[in-house]
Amino acid sequence: MAQIKAAQVMELRKKSGAGIMDAKKALVECDGDMDKAMDYLREKGIAKAAKKSGKVAAEGLTDIEIDGNTAAIVELNSETDFVAASDPFKAALKDVTKQIVANQPKDVDAALAMKTATGTLKEDLTETTRKTGEKVSLRRFEVLKKDDGDNFGAYLHQGGRIAALVVLTGADEATAKDVAMHVAAVNPEFMTKDDVPEDRMNHEREVFKEETLNEGKPAKIVDKIVEGRLHKFLSEICLEDQAFVKDSDKTVGQYVASKGGKLKAFVRYEVGEGIEKKQSNLADEIQQELNR
């Protein structure tokens, strides 16, 4: 049997909302496999489906730059929020974002190799590291294009902790910005249900089936209940079908259509998402619970 560590219990507890001992039991039953443990809790009715990884750990900021029919969304990381709030860091982020829009590199390595007034972008970030006393690194970026009849919508939340960039076919900039604000707030995974991979659909359907059977529902109505729960799940993770934050009587797709537009693309960045962070003293507290 795999040894279950406090950090694993912390992570599962955060993802699932389950109690410490429920999280520990799930990990024990699943031999420490986090994904299987999450499914175990869901099947037992203890947890809901998790969205994208929420392990926000690294510090830094995001930025968006729009130049004509091209836009870029960028995440630049630092070691502390103190440095992320500093003028040298903010200036570096703005410069990086402008250069990425102008040059449209294919990946981070290509971006770091871009020529600048003083050398390369990598050398510029090394200089920012020297000024701030902390490592400053370009983590990721994405470049989006639009046609002349399309509209970009950009939104930065909490000074750049979260960034959302949206492209609409038709409509107008105000509508696109409304959708970007929704994306920042609600964090959809996919544009439409057709974008959800088949293996993900099959996996969720199986989990919902086990959950429904564990509730003791009559076998003849299990499939109907499962499809209903799957439909609700899809409406929570797909932008087109999510209830619009500014008018919950409409879905996002319906809102955009009412403005003469259609969803085309979106990107959402949250600083540090998916990067592991050093665990706080809470790990010690949980370890004490596990040792009882």
Automatic annotation (TrEMBL):
Subcellular location as annotated: Cytoplasm
UniProt-listed InterPro entries: EF-Ts_dimer_sf, Transl_elong_EFTs/EF1B, Transl_elong_EFTs/EF1B_dimer, Transl_elong_Ts_CS, UBA-like_sf
Region (Involved in Mg(2+) ion dislocation from EF-Tu), start-end ranges: 80-83
Translation elongation factor EFTs/EF1B dimerisation domain mapped to chain residues: 71-273
GO molecular-function term, one example from the UniProt record: translation elongation factor activity
Keyword vocabulary terms for this entry: Cytoplasm, Elongation factor, Protein biosynthesis
NCBIfam families xrefs: tsf
Family, per entry: Belongs to the EF-Ts family.
Function as written in the Swiss-Prot or TrEMBL entry: Associates with the EF-Tu.GDP complex and induces the exchange of GDP to GTP. It remains bound to the aminoacyl-tRNA.EF-Tu.GTP complex up to the GTP hydrolysis stage on the ribosome.
Protein name, UniProt field: Elongation factor Ts
Organism: Limosilactobacillus secaliphilus
Origin organism lineage: Bacteria, Bacillati, Bacillota, Bacilli, Lactobacillales
